[in-house]
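Lab notebook, bench 4. Still working through the backlog of constructs that have no structural model yet. Next entry is a single chain of 286 residues. Request: give me the structure tokens for it.
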Amino acid sequence: MISKVLFPVDFSLVSEYAFSNCIPKFFSTGVAEELILIHVLDIHFTGEHFLDIDKMQMNAKEKLEKVAKDFRDMGINVAKTIVRTGNPAMEIAKVAEEEDVDLIYMPSKGEHILRDMILGHTASNVARVATKPVLLVKYEWDKARHTVKCIWDARRVFDKPLIALDFSACSESIVETVNDLFGDYVKEATLFHVIDYGKPEETKKLSDEALKKLEEYAKRFGFECSLEVGAGVASNLIIEEAIIRGSTVIVVGKRGRSVIKDLLLGSTADGVIRKSMLPVLLVPCK
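Model written out:
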């Protein structure tokens, strides 16, 4: 079960929609116990040369406390509100470690979301630098209603995960994380491995071997698992399979801790978070 969830708030339309709709639905499932709210004052983003930092922090704290009160009125246990100054991604990752949270719930922008929403740009950087699992959830702009819309079901996010396994040490972290955080809430899962190695004529043999390995992994979960093996570009096949299977979240491992060198995230994880409209749970490799 998830003990602590860290939720970054930037007071944008995405944040407002998330904390008025999706976060309450997420907590209504009983999957998480308490919520920590964080707002990071990005001084460089403002472009101002003379700033009253103390006043800005006070104003942000007041706004964050109002959000906390609204959550508490909904019955959500808000344990703490935190205001920091600095690089948003780095501060979010740092607080996640300091508070030893189980999950960072990170709102992210979809392809057509408003460009000036700070969190949309911060999300991918948090994914890179965080040493805690990150749940990236995307939102889109509803042109007809002129508002943000949620393109996933917050009540069902862990119902049908597609769990991508590459049989490396990272897969061990994924198994452990899924079982510890939300294994009891899974109705059925797809264990998926992509063959992007070996010679073309070896594909059948490699596929059979991969299925046997997936069978061993399936025994370590307490829920029903379908096993699938694909061959090709891993990130594309993972997303396609998730759509075909009606998955509610994609679980993938990520390596590295760098904002600058995107490849350290791993080409597969990087491709998935950029292209997937489904929620993506990024599990740090140990």
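Notes after review: The chain has two domains: 2-150, 161-284. The two ends are 20 Å apart (CA to CA). Flag for follow-up if needed.
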